[in-house]
Amino acid sequence: MSTKQTPLLQVRNLQTHFKTEAGWARAVDGVSFDIFPGEVVGLVGESGSGKSVTALSILRLIPDPPGKTVGGSILYKAQDLLKLSWEEIRNVRGNEISMIFQEPMTSLNPVFTIGMQIMEVILEHNKVSRKEAFDRAVRMLELVGIPAAANRMNDYPHQFSGGMRQRVMIAIALACDPSLLIADEPTTALDVTIQAQILELMLKVKDERKDAAILLITHNLAVVAETCHRVMVMYGGKIQEIAPVRELFRNPTHPYTKGLLASLPAVDGARHARLTTIPGNVPSILDLPAGCKFATRCPERLEKCFTYEPELIEVSPGHWVRCVLVEK
Amino acid sequence: MTQEAPPPVGTTQGTVGTPPAVARDRSGSVFRRRLRKFRTLKRGYYSFLLIAVAYAISFMLPLLVNNKALVVHYEGSYFFPIREYHAASEFGIEGFGEANYRDLKKKFAEDGKGNWVLMPPYPYSPLENLLELPGNPPHRPSWEHIFGTDTAGRDVFARLAYGFNVSLTFALLVLLFADGFGVMVGAILGYFGSLTDIIGQRMIEIWSALPFLYTIIIISSIIVPTYTPGRNLVLQQSFWLLIGILSIFYWISITYYVRGEFYREKAKDYVGAAIAMGVSEPKIIFKHILPNALTPVVSFAPFTIVLNITALVALDFLGFGLPAPTPSWGELIGQGVSNLTSWWLVLFPIGAMFLTLLLIVLIGEAVREAFDPKEYSRLR
Known about the structure:
The complex is a heterodimer of chains A (328) and B (380). Chain A is α/β, with parallel strands linked by helices and 328 residues long. In chain A, the strands form two sheets. Chain A has an eight-stranded mixed β-sheet, with helices on both faces. Chain A has a four-stranded antiparallel β-sheet with strand order 2-1-4-5. Helix content of chain A is 29%, strand content 23%. In chain A, strand 11 (313-316) and strand 12 (319-321) form a beta hairpin. Chain A is globular and about 65 Å long. The mean pLDDT of chain A is 83. Residues 6-25 of chain B have low confidence and may be disordered. Chain B is 56% helix and 3% strand. Chain B has a three-stranded antiparallel β-sheet with strand order 2-1-3. Chain B has helices at residues 30-40, 42-58, 61-64, 101-111, 156-192, 194-208, 212-222, 237-250, 252-266, 269-276, 281-289, 295-318, 329-338, 343-370, and strands spanning 71-74, 77-79, 116-118. Chain B is mostly helical and 380 residues long. The interface between A and B is medium-sized, with 34 and 22 residues.
């Protein structure tokens, strides 16, 4: 991936905090990354590491209160999404940047037909007649591989299976030709056999649109290895490591990434060998360590890790790590 | 669905698992499914048909129960007294004012000159004081006046029939206005939540503390309800005034349910998905969430109608309802209470009200059952 291109999305020092009774929870605390046209970027991390909040912050979907994006900037096509009016951001949503959610079973409105729901987003963002919107919706359904698409336009969500519904969600998300698709754990709720189909479909659809990019949020490293060009590893509301996918799997540098990869079962590994785990839990975002967020669980930690947090450092082209061990 | 024939002996390996043909035209819409289920609940469905047909017919009452002739054929020309006023003198009889068409019919029949009068099937008006009857009103039921007459000599059957139309129209309109407003308030409180909700709820509590009956008494003493003769009963000013008064008190209870539904529905993923797709806020509230939040409104509606009819009867009974001489059930029940020996003034109005309310409750029961996700019902 050439880095000389202008990025499609430039997130700089994004900070999204939530107000709780126990104080401000810093769910996302200074996240910066770029997404280039045509790229598939994976965002991985444990539950509670801030992946989803990062994604929701991009479209300003954080419920306020209690959440608030308190700092940073999100440059999309040279405009700061955080500074847009509600009307302008509404026009970005679903049109320029769209999103696929984790739960296909509940993400469709039960009282409307599938056709109406695809047509709605088309009619919302384009000046087209209902007839044109209908035709386009049928084409979208065909594209996502729904058999007899025209006949199924009048069906209701409960007449579709989970995998089919996720296909419909993808059709809705792509109906307006967005430049960026944010997929928040799109396959987590699906059967393993369906997961592969859905991922393949997303990649196929992306390939048909040259400059479209995908931000894939997942905690499944196998999915990342399969689909992404670059991977960002998040922990404690911060990005800990960014690397091209091959580089990350061959040469994980941050102790947390190493731990994640070590906890995967190896196909060629010794039988009956117990899986390695990372001891401890994700620190509470209410009470993050002052220094490195991973210090409490890190097997390679130094004394100063508890008080000092390093910056992201480029160790090889395109491979950035936030760790004292690479600082020297 | 017909039972599949058992496979012939010896062909256990055959196509046993052939799926039954699914009718594709059966719409999967939740509403359609509930409608289908409602139709299978015979008791409620037939009650609904009965009430609906009776209500439709009640709009044609001027053609069915009236003292004005439908057609008069007099000396070669036709008159339609149902549509316009004709003085008695126009038909060659002595007297002032409008012709008495029942007498006219008798007279024409006696004369035998080829003139004739076509009367409605039940030729008495609810507003007509039948002073020509022998004795003093109220009169006992007879073949001419099947439910007797009231203390002012008006036909009870005619009054009950017109009263049915007035009561049901009144109940439906109050339902429409009160629930329409209540749903809107509930939707706004539930969707926006937080401060809007807290302030809104407190306002509603203050409003609901207003004493309903006193307010009506005060209002009707300021704006004296008047009856405009000759105007249709449901176009009377006082009728709409009463609808307005009831509506401003009866919208409250539904807001609680709709507010709760909105709180639940707005947290669901499809709402988040709609926001993420850039759908505007009014569209999300009214197009996406509202249809999902209408279950309590629909299943309460029949019972709200019962409540509204009862409210009108109660107000009429107390004398704060529709002004005389509007045909009303409550007023008749009031007459019955003060003339207990005239049993027909007690039995028939209460019977009519009981029957109507019973049928509507049966509809309500079936609607509730149709909205119940459980497949098998005890009502079938």
